[in-house]
């Protein structure tokens, strides 16, 4: 759950929030140069953890067979 919160916090911190204020459509894209180097390191770690959890779910529930 913390990984999800962190990913969303990075999404909110990027200039995409200015799109909301301007009334434009918001997307989930964040330019890498708009993200701090510390947040990039955390994102890499978080996505690694998410990948491990997804692999565990596939193994546990045999979803790869679907």
TrEMBL record:
InterPro entries: DUF294_put_nucleoTrafse_sb-bd. Residues 2-61 form the DUF294 domain. Pfam families: DUF294_C (PF10335). This is DUF294 domain-containing protein. It comes from Candidatus Ruthia endofausta.
